[in-house]
Amino acid sequence: MYRPFMNSTYYGTWMGDGFILGQTNLAKNVQDPIDFNEIRAYRDAVSHFLEDGIRNSAIRVNVGWDENDYQMDISTQSGQDEYERVFQRNQDLGVTHVIFAPSNNASSSRVNNTDAWGWENVLWFSLGQKIRMGEWDTLLSPIPNEVSYMIQRANVHGIQLMAYVYPILAFRKDGVDQDWLFPCIYNKNGLCASLASVEFQDYLIQSLGNFLKRTGVGGFAFDYTFFNDNRQQNAYSQWRGWMRVLSEVRKMYPSIVIDQRQEAHKYGAWYQLPSTYAEPIAGDENPETYGARFPSLHTDHTAADNLRQVNYQYIMEQMMPLQRVPGFCFHQTERSFANGKLALQDWNIRDFDLLGYRYSLLSSLAVAPSNFVLTMIPARDLAEFTYFPSKDIDFIKDWLHFADQYQAVLQNALYISGPPNTSRPDVVAAFGDSIGFLFLFNTGIEKQYYTLTLDDSIGINTTASVYWLLVERYPLLGKTLGLLSIGEEMEVYVNPRAAHVVDAIPVNLTQDINRTFLLGVAGAVNTDMNGDVFLTDIAGQSGVKEIAYVVNLKAIPKHVYVNGAEISFVSDCNLSMKTPGLCIRVDMQFCGDAFSSFMPIANFSGPYQLWYNTTFTILPGMIDQILSRKQHYPIPWTLQDASASWLNPARLLLYPVFTNASKNEPPSLIINGEVVALTAAYTGRDHMTAGTFTGWYYDATSLSASSSHALSLRIPSGAALQGVFWENLETPFSNTLC
């Protein structure tokens, strides 16, 4: 958990860091060798030393480079206008900080970069080259007009800008090389600054403080922070020096946001005391970097599954307080062509995953509720900016508000089922005394179940209440799943490739002795003085028969009404849970076509060796949903856009899922006796590699509804077909009974 990087072959006298001794009771839920109460105790100990104190709201940062803001030149009107849309969209979403790293050809040039990565021209609001050379004094030199203008525009939108900074470049002081410089291979000029140097630490602290004061900057994103001064006996002096820099800057400006990057994922919780959050996804954000361990046609799904995989290490292994665990919402747009050459002009700026972003946002909420790090947002492309639906803006804003409202509870989050796995759901639980939350994610292709035990194994306070009510918050708000007593078990499910959010609410039946409860559907239940039962605002999945239960009744009613109409019922509930009072069962058939997200096109009983043959029908409701989306999201999609499987959500895609598939051996697909083309899908748009490959799909939008279609699929050698599924459908819900 703590890596001082001491050289074991060097024996000298060192002042050791402090340490804490404590004890805790063991929990029931132990993921060998991890005990949940030990994790909680360790996190509490670290939290005591966090240098920004305990926060009661979430940080909201948009990372400009994840939407390739270096392609926007703020010395031009077009670059300023484009960034204005970024500011506006962040304001729309309730985001408060933007890591600001555009190009500015009036102040810097790529040809003068000395860093190995080639980004020095965008550092320090494009002033990094001049600051390194001692040509721009952080205290006295005038701020360029174009930089001042962008700071002013950000302020108008309520946005605080954050500067991107590389600490170990060859900084000079007053235009003169200093003793803190040493020969290194990292920088093109062959020199690096040593973080072990107290003089350099002082210089950096002063420069950062001056820049904060002059620009009103809201924080820094630090990257390229290598501890590479091999003249030192060990890396500890550099580690400690960097901690001093961050701590001193934090003391000067306690409320700033400090984004830590390069290798910040390695050093454990104690390394994060002065920062705001650790390195998002523990590495580079490019889609080609983290690959596609859990393939999906929606790149935001793939990125979200990777986030939960990484944050398992932060939360369960490094035992990092949630206040320091980083989120990663949506995905970064690729910045280079397939040949590796950087795209210097606008490229792939239309890239938002409209149907995948919700899963991504909820993943960040579950495993990083204190730090929402937003990547590419619908802003740079004028059509995406204009037509991004208001209901989706509200969706993001509402969940960010939810994170603030329940911040203290969400910081108790723990994985209770292990890291993401296609064979079972991954479940995150966060409980307080008065409410708790369950976040369930399914990376697999079938509905998955998790046996939930209502005891301290999930972090619940067993003395807070005897009964807890489980109510779905997403996808169907208000659907009550169960009423459980302490120690009871219940099987909860998650739909394929989906996220579910469930509230757990304590119920005091001693005080609410006459309260009746509705289980199985969304809605409300009331009784009148005659004992009749009224179910109102009832909702369920369209086209599906749902079973509702009314429990804790004092007597069996004579009449039951659903949304104003009388309906039959039975008094034999046969529930597995031990519900109080009397119970009735009401069967409801909701109107509409029965379909759901990631639904198989037909029954699948595999395995199939060479060919899979079946027939399928496209329901009218499926086409209606696709056409409605096209109407309400009327972006003029191009052929280049069509190469990205997550774009143009007005396409009905047919997605065969294989294991051990290779991009070099495509399957053959025959629809209604005609060979049709399959399109290869990747997590990015230019890097078409084995690591980013997510399968093949067919655009079935033109196929007729209500007709039977014949499908024959040749299975590539060495691959195993798991099924064929519909993509770009959302599960519909209805308030109308049939």
List the helices and strands and how they pair.
Blueprint: E1 30-31, E2 34-35, H1 36-47, E3 59-63, H2 77-93, E4 97-100, H3 128-133, H4 145-156, E5 160-165, E6 181-183, E7 191-193, H5 198-215, E8 219-222, H6 236-252, E9 257-260, H7 287-290, H8 299-317, H9 357-367, E10 371-374, H10 382-387, H11 390-405, H12 407-410, E11 414-415, E12 426-431, E13 436-441, E14 448-453, E15 467-474, E16 479-485, E17 489-494, E18 499-507, E19 517-519, E20 522-527, E21 533-541, E22 545-553, E23 560-562, E24 565-566, E25 582-589, E26 611-617, H13 620-632, H14 639-642, E27 653-659, E28 668-671, E29 674-676, E30 679-682, E31 693-699, E32 708-714, E33 720-727, E34 733-734
Parallel strand pairs: 3-4, 3-10, 4-5, 5-8, 8-9, 21-23
Antiparallel strand pairs: 1-2, 6-7, 11-12, 12-13, 13-18, 14-17, 15-16, 15-18, 19-22, 20-21, 21-34, 22-25, 23-24, 26-32, 27-31, 27-33, 28-29, 28-32, 30-31
Helix pairs in contact: 5-6, 8-9, 9-11
- Helix-strand category: alpha+beta
Q: Given this structure, which CATH class of the domain at 414-589 is correct?
A: Mainly Beta
Strand content of the residues, in percent? 15-25%
Largest sheet: 6 strands, parallel
Q: What's the alpha carbon Rg, rounded to whole Å?
A: 28 Å
Strand order of the largest sheet: 9-8-5-4-3-10
Mean pLDDT: 93
Amount of helix: 10-25%
Fourth-level CATH superfamily of the domain at 414-589: Golgi alpha-mannosidase II
Poorly predicted runs: none
Shape: globular
Description of the structure:
With 738 residues, the protein is of the alpha+beta class. Among the domains are: 414-589, Immunoglobulin-like (Sandwich); 611-734, no CATH class. The protein is 22% helix and 24% strand. It contains 14 helices and 34 strands. The protein has a six-stranded parallel sheet with strand order 9-8-5-4-3-10. It has a six-stranded antiparallel sheet with strand order 11-12-13-18-15-16. Strands 20, 21, 23, 24 and 34 form a five-stranded mixed sheet that branches. Helix 8 runs parallel beside helix 9 and helix 9 runs parallel beside helix 11 (390-405).
